[in-house]
Design brief:
- Keywords: Membrane, Transmembrane, Transmembrane helix.
- By secondary structure, the protein is mostly helical.
- It is 58% helix and 0% strand.
- It has a domain of 85 residues.
- Helix 2 runs antiparallel to helix 3, helix 2 runs parallel beside helix 4 and helix 3 packs antiparallel against helix 4.
Length: 132
């Protein structure tokens, strides 16, 4: 069926305006909780969650790289393990020393991403070295 009010201009006194989430005032970008920079892990956490997740990522990465070190002839795995340990130590220092919450959480997220990136690159390099 056709909506008889489809072509009418929008009125501010429309009693049904709040019923439809797709109508009405759009939130400003800074009020939108769905934006990446507005996620709770980057705005309200103290940083402990990043240390826990980063620690899990570091342990998994180190175990995997230690296993790959046995077949690694290019000496990639052991330096990667050292870098991952240093990155995690850096995350602990950031958690303890950086006072500004937003900066602390951003640096912890970057540290977590760096651990994952170093591990991924190291695994790819070891794997590529094994291809004849």
């Amino acid at each position: 069926m056709d909506d008889p009010h489809r072509d009418e201009p929008h009125r501010d006194d429309d009693p049904h305006r709040g019923d439809d989430p797709h109508r009405g005032d759009d939130p400003t970008p800074s009020d939108d909780p769905m934006r990446m920079s507005e996620q709770p892990a980057l705005t309200t956490s103290q940083g402990t969650v990043w240390l826990v997740v980063g620690g899990i990522m570091a342990v998994i990465s180190i175990v995997l790289l230690f296993a790959l070190a046995r077949i690694d002839t290019g000496a990639v795995a052991m330096p990667a393990i050292a870098v991952i340990v240093l990155l995690y130590v850096g995350m602990i220092e950031v958690r303890l020393l950086v006072r500004r919450l937003r900066t602390r959480l951003l640096l912890l997220a970057v540290g977590f991403g760096a651990i994952a990136a170093v591990a991924l690159v190291a695994v790819l390099l070891v794997g590529m070295a094994q291809v004849p």
